[in-house]
Amino acid sequence: MAVTLCTPTSFAVAQECGKTEAVAQGETLEQLAARCKTTAEAILSANPSLAPSEIQAGLQLDMPADADGDWLGRARDAVRDAGERVNQAAEAAGRSVSDYLSDQPDLNRDILEFGERLGLPGVSTKESRGADVTVATRSAGPGEEVTLNASGLPGGAEVVIGVRIGNEAPFRTVSRAQTSRAGTLQVTVPVPEQAQKGQEIGFAVETANGRVRVVSEPFSVGARR
């Protein structure tokens, strides 16, 4: 199910209208309402003596009180509608809303950006850490496996895992994997056999197209078990 978010930019497309507005050539009541960001019913309520059949070019009509820009009300409506659509999409996919958004990083980012623009409470405006990879294993010796956790990568992308001993050595490929739809990765890779206790090694995760590459903090090799 496709989910469409209304953003503040969408509202800016409509033209602002004053307390009164003239009907344009060929314009219907509904088109006038859309142009002035209100409804046909609200315009008729503001002009009780007006009959729909009397709408003609040049006719001056009183505009509803909120036609001059109740932006906050429209923003609240957009947030409510977006929430309902996300909830429906999650239910259709058999997922919770949080899990559904984790599987849809682009949609999740759009919602956060929308919330930040509106200044909604609970929506962080801090910059994202971006792509990151960490070594989850506390200690491992030569030939033993360590677990890498990566996030912030492109979703469903093929990646190459590399390792290097010391800061000067080049990375060499030790494994290949694919990220989740949410751009995360958990994979186990071996510590190089030639590494010595106390040496620092680094791990890298790079997309197969070479566009994104993240490197872990130095990992200190432990004793061989």
Choose one word for the global shape. rod-shaped
The biggest sheet, with number of strands, parallel, antiparallel or mixed sense and barrel status, is: 5 strands, antiparallel
- In DSSP terms (H or I, runs of 4 or more residues), the helix count works out at 6
What's the rounded overall pLDDT mean?
79
Order of helices and strands: HEHHEHHHEEEEEEEE
- Beta content comes to 15-25%
Query: Radius of gyration, Cα only, in angstroms?
Result: 28 Å
Q: Which percent bin holds the helix content?
A: 25-40%
Brief sketch in words of this structure:
By secondary structure, this protein is α+β, with helices and mostly antiparallel strands.
Description:
By secondary structure, the chain is an alpha+beta fold. Helix content is 28%, strand content 23%. It has six helices and ten strands, in the order H-E-H-H-E-H-H-H-E-E-E-E-E-E-E-E. The relative contact order is 0.12.
